[in-house]
Amino acid sequence: MRYLILLMLLSSCSLSQYPEWVGIDSVKTIDQAFMYVEDNIIYTLDNGENWQFPEETADLKTGDCEDISALIAHLLIYNVGIDNVLLVLCKRKTDGNGHMMIKIGNKYYESIGGRGYYPNYDQAFKTVKEYSYDDYINKAMRHH
Question: pLDDT tens-digit profile of 48-104?
């Protein structure tokens, strides 16, 4: 029950209520969500699978591909109003390394480096699992 209440609070939380996240209210489009993250979050590789909550990533201003993807998903859902956002855990076909990207409809978006739309996903990656935003938050709760 405690986790359900926490999940409900986190999934309905707006990052704009925190004054230290200047500029987050201005995110109203897909491009602005990616640019906000590009301008404010530093990519760092983590040692293991510690999935951060979007609020943590925004507060720490750092995260790996899962953390950054979750923050972008949060912005797309709560600021832009897109409800069919998925977080895609995948592997690179060249080296087998794991990665996470964003999927909206049938389009894939790179979460790292502000790259946005990734038209050649099927040539470069193999999908391992797709997570809804709520599924991601659930998994992040289990890792804390």
Answer: 678 999 999 999 999 999 999 999 999 999 999 999 999 999 999 999 999 999 999
Q: Give me the amino acid identity at 22.
A: V
Cα 111 from Cα 124, distance rounded (Å): 15
**Burial classification of residue 66, based on how many CB atoms lie within 10 Å of its CB (0-12 exposed, 13-18 middle, 19 or more buried):** buried
Q: To which residue do tokens 């897909």 refer?
A: 30
Domain assignment of residue 137, given as a range: 2-143
CATH number of the domain to which 87 belongs: 3.10.620.30
Determine the Cα–Cα distance for residues 114 and 89; give it in Å rounded to an integer: 18
Closest C-alpha among 61, 64, 72, 79 to residue 13: 79
Query: pTM (2 decimals)?
Result: 0.82
Task: Please give the backbone phi and psi of residue 4, each rounded to the nearest 5 degrees, phi first.
Answer: -65, -45
